[in-house]
């Protein structure tokens, strides 16, 4: 076997492994089990009834319908665009890139430390998996 074939096989194999891991990670994120508790602890304190800035109620009973497929009041983007984390204003606000997307205000959460990279990655995975209400 030539070196070119081995390198191609390894690259292809590595790509397939990566794709399988990415799919598995996306499928394993649950809105109710993983996202809702995070929103409850880090976001619902300020976004409880939907009359606060941003007009979002992020307590467990209201969070999904307040986020998914709903246009942001600060930006032309949807808060969560299923299947498109990079086009979701929620991700922009959490990463601090919201101004570039036509948004305003400060990075969220406003009080306290930003979410960890792992927490943002989890939200991204959920959105990229279609933002299921699971």
Structural class: mainly alpha
Low-confidence stretches: 1-26
H/E element sequence: HHHHH
Helix content: 40-55%
Assign an overall shape.
globular
Number of beta-strand segments = 0
N-to-C span: 47 Å
The number of distinct helices, counting runs of at least 4 residues, comes to 5
Number of domains: 1
Oligomeric state as shown: single chain
Integer average pLDDT:
84
Radius of gyration: 18 Å
Largest sheet: none
What share of the residues does DSSP label as strand, in percent? under 5%
List its salient traits.
134 residues; mainly alpha; 5 helices; 0% strand
Describe the structure.
By secondary structure, this protein is an all-alpha fold. The chain has one domain (3-128). It is built from five helices and no strands. It is globular and about 30 Å long. It starts with a helix and ends in a 6-residue tail after the last helix.
Topology:
Blueprint lengths: L2 H26 L2 H12 L20 H5 L21 H7 L21 H12 L6
Brief rundown of the structure:
By secondary structure, this protein is an all-alpha fold. Helix content is 46%, strand content 0%.
